[in-house]
Amino acid sequence: MRQVLVALILCILCISCTNSNKKTDHNFETHFEKTEGLETATYEQTIEFYKNLAGVYPEISIKAIGETDSGNPLHIVTLNPDSEFDFSKIRTSGKSILLINNGIHPGESDGIDATMILFRDIVLGKIDRPKNTVLVTIPVYNIGGSLNRNSSTRTNQNGPKEYGFRGNARNYDLNRDFVKCDTKNARTFAQIFHHIKPDVFIDNHVSNGADYQYTLTHLFTQHNKLGGILGTYLHEHMMPKLEDKLSTQKWDITPYVNIFNEVPENGFSQFMDSPRYSTGYTTLFNTLGMMVETHMLKPYKQRVEGTYALMNTMIDIIEEDHEIIQQKRMETLKNLINHTKTYTLSWKLDTTKTSTLHFKGYEADIITSDITGLPRLKYDRNKPFTKDINYQNYFKPDITVDVPKAYLIPKGWHNIIELLKLNQVEITTLQQDSILKVERYRIDSFETRKAPYEGHYQHYNTHVSKTEQDVKFLKGDCIIYTNQNALRYLMATLEPQAPDSFFNWNFFDTILQQKEGFSPYVWEDKALDLLKHNPELKNTFQKRKKEDPGFSKNWYAQLDWIHKQSENYEKAHMRYPIYRLKH
Hints:
Layout: H1 2-24, H2 31-34, H3 43-56, E1 60-65, E2 74-79, H4 87-90, E3 96-101, H5 110-123, E4 133-138, H6 143-147, H7 184-196, E5 200-206, E6 216-220, H8 223-226, H9 228-248, E7 253-255, E8 268-269, H10 278-283, E9 288-294, H11 300-339, E10 342-349, E11 355-368, E12 375-392, E13 395-402, E14 406-409, H12 414-422, E15 428-429, E16 434-448, E17 459-473, E18 478-481, H13 487-494, H14 520-532, H15 535-547, H16 549-552, H17 555-564, E19 579-581
Parallel strand pairs: 3-4, 3-5, 5-9, 6-7, 8-12
Antiparallel strand pairs: 1-2, 2-4, 6-9, 10-13, 11-12, 14-18, 14-19, 15-18, 16-17
Helix pairs in contact: 3-5, 5-11, 9-11, 14-17
């Protein structure tokens, strides 16, 4: 018996030594630290680091999910001291979930390195382990851009030595793709986002724009747009608390300086994050979102350290407020579903309300350019200042519409239906052919970009008119009730006037082209007969000729106008093919 006991003790000691040796096999020093803050980890080094970390510490999990345009999968790395990685169980545990996205623009690599150090320091016990927060990171979101390394394309940026490229494997800017989902990256992000269902979201970036003293700036989702108790909490509690806590750590921070080739002391406005952007998209599902924007001209080491401090501070806030955050998110969703009668599609600056920033900048002059001989902006870092400046961070509704009971989408628009399914929209299908009284839009006018933008000639300034009529729908057509979690998403994408609607992203351009026409020599006689038997139409036609000289001199325009008033004119032209069920 004694021999068995001795053998058992030796076995336990052996296992203990093995585990101890396993932990010392890796010192988990990042490439950033090995190069004294001059270089950023490659994509391969980043993934290897997290795999090694997960191999040693059971609190860490790394999982490949979905595809990207590069051919490589996205990964999520989860840090949960309870070693529970089933998100359905995590959500019932009372813990909040923080999702950190890195490398959406791989040249802006600060978050990639800062998050590696943050996760390591937590499991090593160098900083407090979160008790009420589960951390999830996408280590490198734009893998294709990360693999396309260079040392020259970030013209304005002070380090690191090499970095990735802004465009992805197909040269898309992924921070414009969250609604339209042209890339596999964006589709996988949606899959990850709805799998995790984060309470708070951070997207790490590096700024462009002015010169100033701050290393850190924040770009929270616009609080009026988020609205209600959640918007108030973000604006009056979370943001000030972040600023105050960082200040005690000697990290000054200010709102993102939203200007180009101007001086900040003249004042600036908050950036409006529409749903094409990451925080605009996450807001559609009532997630508290912010972008970190470090200052491009500060040394790389300093920027990474600042990003680390900010994320660690945000964890502290979530730890303190996790119950408040979850409660306000649930109340917001409940109010949206049960009480929202109207929805604001677009916003404009409210010039009656402003904030004052005690801004730390540098004096600047307009001098003569040695290249062009024309005026240019020149900052003087030897002349720092602190001035009170005007900050416009209040917005008011611009376009507001009634919320329908449901949307109806003919099954032929499968590309739209697929995107709705990707975003976990609840969809039911008609079980038989049905005639329903619905509201339908006609596209009255719109403007289109003159140059391509992210693979599209995007529309804007869209105006519609609305009529109510009976429409026949077929078995298998989709009906989407708005009293669901995806209400904001539905309004932002299916209402044509919304800035990032599927209409404005060209998903419905086929309705803008007339498919049937007329031969003038045939239509002349039919048009004459139509006017002869329709005196009211004839009077309107004659009045139009009299009042519009251009119209009266254009024979084709006249024939086309009459054709558009006739039963021969196709009904699909300019008619938006998604319908609204009012009651």
